[in-house]
Amino acid sequence: VQLVESGGGAVQRGGSLRLSCAASGFTFSDYALTWYRQAPGKEREPVATISTTGGTTNYADSVKGRFTISRDNAKKMVYLQMNALKPEDTAVYYCGWRGYWGQGTQVTVSS
User: Which pLDDT tens digit goes with each residue over 80-92?
Assistant: First the structure.
């Protein structure tokens, strides 16, 4: 199993970023996928989950209305569109599947 995140960066408050996760090594279309994040000194937390077809999504309360998770089963990709970013969104963002993690991508939001 391999999960490779990309798209992080440094933005100012109110900015946007789009994260991508390329997956391989499992039947991608058979499973829900989740984006997680881990801020300094805090535990890793789920941010958004998407069902196998993309028809159902769930979000942490802290990101509802600002983040959108999507997937492309043909490309084995999952995305996280992040808008209206806040300094408290600063974290390393991970794509996760059944205990497997990528290396993460750093998102830094300055005020």
Answer: 999 999 999 999 9
